[in-house]
Amino acid sequence: MGKVWLVGAGPGDPGLFTQRGKGILSRADVILYDRLVNPGILMWARGGVKFIDAGKTPNGKKMEQSEIHRLLVKHARYGAKVVRLKGGDPFVFGRGGEEAGILAKARIPFEVVPGVTAGIAGPGYAGIPVTQRGVSTEIDFCIGSRAEGSVSGKTWVGYMSVDGLKDFLSKATEKGFTPKTPAALVASGTCCDQRVLVATVGTLARAARKARMRAPAVVVVGAVVALREKLAWWEGRPLAGKRIILTASESLSRGWREKLEDQGAEVWEIPMTRTEALTPKKGWKEKIGNADWLVFTSAAGVRAFPGVVWDWRKIAHCQIAAVGKSTAEVLRSIGLQPDWIGGGPGSRELVKGWPRWAKGKVLHLTGDAGSGEMVELFRRKGFSADRLVIYRNSGAGAVPHPVRKALSNSGGDWVVFASGTAAERFRKAVPNWSREPKVVVIGPATARAARQAGWRVRAIAHEPSAESVLDAMLHRS
Length: 477
Fold this sequence. Notes:
A hairpin with a 7-residue loop joins strand 8 and strand 9. The protein has 4 domains: 3-115, 3-Layer(aba) Sandwich (Cobalt-precorrin-4 Transmethylase, domain 1); 120-234, Methyltransferase, Cobalt-precorrin-4 Transmethylase, Domain 2 (2-Layer Sandwich); 243-272 and 396-476, Rossmann fold (3-Layer(aba) Sandwich), CATH 3.40.50; 275-395, Rossmann fold (3-Layer(aba) Sandwich). It is an alpha/beta fold. Helix 16 runs parallel beside helix 17. The chain is elongated, with a radius of gyration of 27 Å. The chain is 31% helix and 22% strand. The protein starts with a strand and ends with a helix. The relative contact order is 0.10.
């Protein structure tokens, strides 16, 4: 017997997906996902998972609820770990209670993983607190025009309320709200394409038609809407409304998501490379022992190095060089202090800037994807140079079909390439775009390779760091 997890994917922003949900998603065998689930979240699924589109579109294609029930039971009985991934929270207008009931009746183990509901997150991202001391002390959540109850001191939040907006607002006036009561419509709340329309109960429906507001959206009615004028925060960040795709390996881009999200970006991590430290081989100790300089040009090389030399006393005679500040920081994090730091990424740049006082044999610690260009450049300058491959680069697996489809249809604003290999692989993984993203690369060598792969490079970062990438994008936005 397998198991089913009813997981809330949150309102749209991948950053609001819970750690619990992310961990479960990474172990799933089968994922039934809804239309409102941000496809970027699906990137946390493991390779080989079975994706099933269980979405429903208004007046369009949909999977019947009975079929969803059947699939949940079927796959669990086959022994699979099944995730039912639902927008928002599974128990807030998500029919999660019905699905849990079916599973209980079939005696299939299940768990519920709550998610952030759009009725709170959407207004929150719009700077509208759904309750406020002295303004609103109650909140009603409703579906469309199905609104009941009195309105004294209340906030009304209506889900799925674009088509039924006029009826919902009519019901609001019947229950005591006036035509002049502030009202707002929050579409695609928390996502990079979030839109907020503020009006009144009497004017919101007409304004929504004129602005061509589309679902998914929530409507908020009450005095709290007026607070948006002072409390709106989402739109003011430099990358608000931008979708950024990171293709670098996890070892390089560790911590980048957080820095970019802090500036308002919606970040999709789609690594095109995976790094794996190699087991030390015969002759490695001798190569290191004969070197005067150990040169590191990537975070992956630095992180693989402790597995090569367990005793730092073995390299006490060596001086250490880093290609740039970011690699130097990673060296310090493992207890090694660079003796010289280059001015930026790339073999040519490092060798060109090599100081005259740095004499002796050079050993480049690198990965198997390297071309050996650095060694050749050092030798042309009269140095004794060699390289030692201590980690392996490999492809990170196929981009899941739902993610590929979403990128083809809606595109992205920026894609980040840290290597020519990543640019080439991503071009093949997603060949067609309705709106091709702008490209930022790390270093001139990657820029050349990206252009050869057919990308239009808009910005070049001079360090393999989130700060340098962010600076490059902001200067070209």
